[in-house]
Specification:
Number of strands: 11
Order of helices and strands: HHHEEEEHEEHEHEEEE
Number of helices: 6
Strand content: 25-35%
Oligomer: single chain
Helix content: 10-25%
Distance between the termini: 21 Å
Structural class: alpha+beta
Shape: elongated
């Protein structure tokens, strides 16, 4: 790619630069490759560094780039697709589930969660913590709230603590007949705990996907999954669950 001087354009200069940089990422760079520093890039395209930073910020928000202190700016892997649709309903923790159990504790959930589960606000539930990693980077964190009544056969011997207990809760939950699941999604900002787990700064944009699992007409579990907004995109269709999109034609734009 030769030097491109940006002259008079009808759109903001940083947006035009973003388009030029995006085309360069497709043709010249591979996933994980480090881009030249800001001074060199600004000189190459004949723009001020402030304009360059705006373009880089847009590409980072779209999931094309990752910028980290001490590393530089690298080309990001394809985004994770959060697919919401009318496909087969399944409990979390199945053989094709990409989430990894991390821990499980028994505690009183937030009031909004207790209301969604239709449990008492002072009633303890199982809280399963799970994480999702794509190409070596954290992309999502999940809290799965399971009432005691949904896994009444759970044995303390079978589920001592930590990840083992999380797997035991998921195993018992899959014994319950699932009637349906209800999904909702909203844009939010990362709190301190989510930011630490997702390797982001507090306040970074996230997608929060809430899934209510219903059995026999009542809520049997509630999942609150927090996805890095710079690594994920929503897709709507017939397939349910979460899919990893690896083809270049599925890259977010």
């Amino acid at each position: 790619m030769g030097t491109t001087q940006l002259e008079s354009v009808p759109e903001p200069k940083y947006l035009h630069l973003k388009t030029v940089l995006s085309e360069a990422l497709d043709s010249e760079f591979s996933v994980g490759e480090i881009l030249p520093n800001e001074r060199d890039l600004a000189a190459r395209f004949g723009v001020a560094r402030a304009t360059l930073r705006q373009a880089l910020e847009q590409l980072e928000l779209e999931g094309r780039l990752q910028r980290r202190r001490g590393v530089g700016t690298t080309v990001a892997p394809p985004r994770v697709g959060v697919s919401l649709g009318a496909g087969p309903h399944t409990w979390p923790g199945g053989s094709e589930d990409a989430w990894q159990p991390v821990d499980c504790t028994a505690a009183v959930p937030p009031a909004a969660v207790a209301d969604a589960l239709e449990t008492g606000r002072d009633e303890s539930v199982h809280i399963v913590r799970r994480s999702r990693v794509s190409q070596g980077r954290p992309v999502a964190a999940e809290l799965l709230y399971v009432p005691q009544s949904s896994v009444s056969e759970l044995s303390a011997i079978d589920a001592p603590s930590g990840a083992a207990r999380a797997r035991a809760v998921l195993r018992e939950l899959r014994r319950v007949e699932l009637e349906r699941q209800e999904n909702a999604v909203e844009l939010g900002s990362a709190g301190a705990d989510d930011a630490k787990e997702l390797d982001r700064l507090p306040g970074a944009p996230v997608l929060v996907v809430t899934t209510r699992f219903v059995s026999a007409g009542r809520a049997a579990a509630l999942s609150v999954a927090t996805y890095r907004a710079d690594t994920c995109r929503l897709t709507f269709g017939d397939a349910g669950g979460v899919e990893i999109h690896t083809g270049p034609e599925q890259r977010a734009s």
